[in-house]
Amino acid sequence: MTGMARETPAGDLRLANLTKRFGIFTAVDDLSLTIPQGSFFALLGASGCGKTTTLRMIAGLEEPTSGQVLLGDTDIARLRPYKRPVNTVFQSYALFPHLTIFENVAFGLRRRGIRSVDDEVTRMLSLVQLDGYGNRRPAQLSGGQQQRVALARALINRPQVLLLDEPLGALDLKLRRQMQIELKRIQTEVGITFVHVTHDQEEAMTMADTVAVMNAGRIEQQGAPADLYEFPATAFVANFLGQSNLLAGEAAGTSGGEVAVTAHGARFSVPAGRSRADRGPVHLGVRPEKLHLVGSADQVPQGHQLVTGLVTDASYVGVSTQYLLRTGWGTELSVFAANNGAEARVPVGSEAVAYWDPRHAFLLPRDAADTDRTTPVLDEPVGASS
Amino acid sequence: MTLLAPTGSGHPPPAPPAARSGRRRLLPYLLLLPGAAWLLIFFGVPLLQLAAASLYDPSGSLSTGYAMTWAFGNYPDVVQAYWPQLLRSFGYAGLALVLALLLGYPLAYAIAQKAGRWKNLLLVCVVAPMFTSFLVRTLAWKTILSDNGALVGLLRDVHLLAPDGRLLATPFAVVLGLTYNFLPFLVLPLYASLERLDPRLLEAATDLYASPAQAFRRVTLPLSMPGLVAGTLLFFIPASGDYINAELLGTPNEYMIGNVIDSAFLVRLDYPQGAALSFLLMAAILAVVFGYLRRAGTEEVL
């Protein structure tokens, strides 16, 4: 199977100033992006952010208003979809109901005039673990099996780029986890560039080696999942990819490798390497699992920073307990405490102190009008799509 | 049936299982009864009467009465006398069907897939002519195609028609009339099939290297097959038995088998001949339909 990678000519997928307008609505706004050959790339965003439109422009199902889609050095943006070395796994699968599974998988090969398809189809069906299902019709298969047929039907053509449009959206949670691992295995095996569109941040982080977070037609941030999570570039990313406690403050410049911040009357500092702004209005961010909760300030270790408040809620979720801590100025911070037996439970209604290591904090520029932000940006409901 | 059981109390006593299942088994037949009786009286009996009439002594007449002589010779006789009209019927109906497909398939496709909010209005337009009588519509075509009409004048002016050329009273006029009159029977079932066609399947086909023509041939056409088969049958069967179009838009040279049957019963009063021709037409249509269904692969239709 490694032979496949060598057979496809070298070529990164590059989107250059790609724009798509529907009337006065700009779905994709001057998007530029490079997706290295052979990578598993996730385009992550909420409903209506333009991610599906971007995918459809790569597939040729939507014509860009302006800009280029470059595969290697060739601009394919104006090629008809059937002339592109790109295949899609559709959200609805779009299997042909009148054809058998075998003929569904063979469809692309037959359209390109390839006569002997038996071996290839059999090999593909076994790659997606559907040996022996060739004679059935799509309607006789479960959702997960149909999903795998859709994958085999696209992969058999050995495209240079495989596009996946919310491919797991219609599956239940357990099957989705299983298919995530499966997809990752297959991608490693065939070495084709996968571009995966999803609204599910966990799915994107599990599978992709590069994630681009999209919002309102633009890329907010792009990078390895861990980098995005540990050091988000914008408040949107901080609260779309997981959850963050963002406190509105004012930065007063760098001194000695630290940026000094005043927020809600208290003084904090953040290492300069974790600051994306060092002057003016900023958001001081800390992830809930990086916060620790203790009963009083004298229990806070040396070199840590703290906020005091009142515990208003504690949800026990097994692996962790999720607390809400209402600060003196009214904002409720999220604190996730691992149930590792090392820390005592803090009762609801008690005064408590949340502290963190400054090296775990991060500093983002902030609009002057923006206040504290601690709630996650909601995912779209499963099944809906932009 | 629980429907008939008293429902006053919260928990009506369940009927004994045997009796209940017995009644349940009878129910479909009870539901069938009125329709079946209707068909038996108004279709089955006359059909038998007609079958008998087709075997009457051909030398009888209405005034002298007919004798039942099992005259199977009536059949070869009518074939010999009227085979041109029989062939012409299927020829005209076939030609009209081809025309109707060329007009109707794109029309049904456009209404089903591209019309958006105009869909219902366009459907009404397809059906609207049916609100007036078949006769009136055909008479309207007689006016449109008449020698003094604007259409013939225009065609003569641009030399598509000879100075003394005409449209009315030609095979063309009859085929045109058939096409027009039966088009909705083709379009409606086709529309129903194409309306259910998921456009994402066509996107998937083009994504999988199918050109628009291939996508049509491999996806649209097979998925519209049930509507296509139903529509062609609904078109072809009445069109091949029609006599109004040939009567009003043609001359005796364009007469179809329907005209011959019409005159046998109503003008020449030759009942055995009319009956024999009627049965012959039925048999021929059945043969065509079965041959067609066998070829069209009708798993999804029947």
Automatic annotation (TrEMBL), chain B:
Chief localisation class: membrane
Compartments, record wording: Cell membrane
Keyword Cell inner membrane: no
Protein's GO biological process: transmembrane transport
Domain of life: Bacteria
Topological category with respect to the lipid bilayer: Multi-pass membrane protein
InterPro entries: MetI-like, MetI-like_sf
GO cellular component, one term: plasma membrane
Keywords tagged on the record: Cell membrane, Membrane, Transmembrane, Transmembrane helix, Transport
Annotated Pfam families: BPD_transp_1 (PF00528)
Start and end residues of each ABC transmembrane type-1 domain: 86-294
Keyword match Transcription regulation: no
SUPFAM superfamilies, per database record: MetI-like
TM spans (from-to): 29-52, 90-109, 121-140, 168-192, 219-239, 275-293
UniProt xrefs under PANTHER family: INNER MEMBRANE ABC TRANSPORTER PERMEASE PROTEIN YDCU-RELATED, INNER MEMBRANE ABC TRANSPORTER PERMEASE PROTEIN YDCU-RELATED-RELATED
Family membership noted in the UniProt record: Belongs to the binding-protein-dependent transport system permease family. CysTW subfamily.
Name of the protein in its database record: ABC transporter permease
